[in-house]
Automatic annotation (TrEMBL):
UniProt keyword annotations, A-Z: Developmental protein
Coiled coil feature spans: none
Domain C2 Aida-type as annotated: residue spans: 181-328
Compositionally skewed regions (Polar residues) per UniProt: 72-90
Pfam family, any one: Aida_N
Chain residue ranges for the region called Disordered: 71-101, 164-184
Keyword Signal annotated: no
Descriptive protein name: Axin interactor, dorsalization-associated protein-like
Annotated GO MF terms: phosphatidylinositol binding
Assigned protein family: Belongs to the AIDA family.
GO CC term (a single one): membrane
Matches recorded under Gene3D superfamilies: Axin interactor, dorsalization-associated protein, N-terminal domain, C2 domain
Length: 333
């Protein structure tokens, strides 16, 4: 799971807690409701996650759902009067419980059940758990030959290479992709976007092995607003184009996409020399471009810059990402 997704979750949870502290219960409930939708969608795509990530998603959903129920059922408890929880080991796979609103891991894939009301301390503790998870990833030991041997002899220890690279590598790209269906619980009256990506223009397009696209929606700071989606691998190549013909359903309502946000499209392919998937080029669509109809996006050199500061065209040739944007307004039947 992308660290930026976890960072975004931690920030949203912290904001919800702050709303509670100031007695802004309506805003707190809205924040928790949005988080619950996000965790539910993440859970639906959990097949591509590690066991730890599945556990994290299940834990997060259970905590937020429980806190939302507690707020809906009672408004008499003042979050300002609660005490801080004593330090508890982070991400203990057997038991990592608070004194109230207990969460119990009932299976190895991260199924939780609730025992008692979930209090604000449980949400604060969840923020610690999430922050610890991506802090550990950032500080993991680089994957050297010695570390690979160590990992092979001790399979319970995971060594992750997190070194920065001019050409970021992905662990895997499922042949069938990780595209999400339309939002399962759309907000009535809200508009959602579908990106019908037709083709990507690249010099020597036929030479790329197992190409696919990673699509992400990010805010002005480059933080993920929803899970990334990968298209299936495409072997349809003609001249300077790779054909994809896929539909990408954004999970966030158009009104909730802030100014400065953008959809990023990253072209990736498999490199036999490194035995990894690598980013070749990228493009983006600003919120101001999110209207209906056909659109072409300029293609830029790697590495992807989610803050859109360093833009260098990949080619002087008129080669673009070709897509069509459609809008869907959901209304009660």
């Amino acid at each position: 799971m992308d660290n930026q997704v976890r960072s975004s979750w931690a920030k949203s949870l912290t904001a919800a807690v702050e709303h509670e502290k100031w007695g802004q219960m309506l805003e707190a409930k809205e924040a928790y409701e949005k988080l619950l939708v996000g965790f539910t969608r993440a859970e639906a795509g959990a097949d591509r996650y590690s066991a730890d990530d599945k556990t994290l998603v299940a834990r997060s959903k259970a905590t937020v759902s429980g806190r939302l129920k507690a707020l809906t059922g009672s408004t008499t408890n003042s979050p300002m009067m609660t005490n801080s929880r004593p330090s508890t080991p982070i991400m203990n796979r057997k038991d990592s419980l608070s004194d109230s609103g207990k969460l119990r891991l009932s299976s190895s894939i991260g199924t939780f059940k609730m025992e008692g009301p979930v209090k604000i301390e449980d949400v604060k503790f969840l923020v610690e758990v999430i922050e610890k998870s991506y802090t550990n990833d950032r500080t993991s030991t680089p994957m050297t030959d010695a570390n690979r041997k160590k990992a092979a002899s001790a399979p319970t220890e995971t060594v992750i290479d997190t070194r920065l690279s001019e050409e970021p590598d992905d662990v895997e790209a499922p042949a069938n992709g990780t595209l999400l269906p339309p939002p399962p619980d759309p907000i009535e009256g809200q508009t959602y976007l579908t990106l019908n990506i037709e083709k990507v223009g690249l010099k020597n397009a036929t030479q790329f092995l197992d190409p696919f696209l990673t699509i992400s929606l990010r805010d002005v700071d480059g933080e993920l607003l929803e899970p990334e989606q990968n298209t299936p691998i495409s072997n349809k190549k003609q001249g300077n184009y790779v054909d994809f013909a896929v539909s990408v359903h954004l999970q966030t309502a158009l009104k909730d996409i802030g100014e400065g946000s953008a959809v990023f499209v990253e072209f990736k392919h498999y490199k036999p020399a490194t035995k990894k998937n690598s980013t070749r080029a990228w493009a983006f669509m600003e919120k101001t471009e999110m209207g209906e109809g056909q659109i072409t996006l300029e293609i830029y050199e790697k590495p992807s810059d989610y803050k859109k500061k360093k833009l260098r065209l990949l080619s002087v040739k008129p080669l673009f990402v070709h897509l069509t944007v459609t809008k869907q307004v959901y209304s009660e039947e």
